[in-house]
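User: Okay, second chain of the day. Same drill as before: sequence in, structure tokens out.
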Amino acid sequence: MCQMLLSINPEHVEKILSGKKQYEFRKVRCKSDVDKIIIYSTAPQKMVVAEAEIEEIIEDDINEVWRQTKSLAGISYAFFKAYYKYKSFRDFDRTFYTE
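Assistant: Same drill. Structure tokens below.
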């Protein structure tokens, strides 16, 4: 399959690595053949820190996606709403950390 490099804020990277954040939300759907994400932590770290396998892609109404992911989203509902302002639905990658 295929790998994809994602730049992610260090605050979110920390939550991904600890297991508190198991979903990575994106405004653009990744290609269907991508099965692994290379996690690049942005400044101040500025380096690749981990890899994650894509377990599933959830694509639905934005409210339904939040309902399904909120317990392991690793972000607040306010942050989620602000990120997707003016959007009715988007694509979401559920990932889990692998060493």
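The longest helix spans residues 10-18.

User: Thanks, on to the next one.
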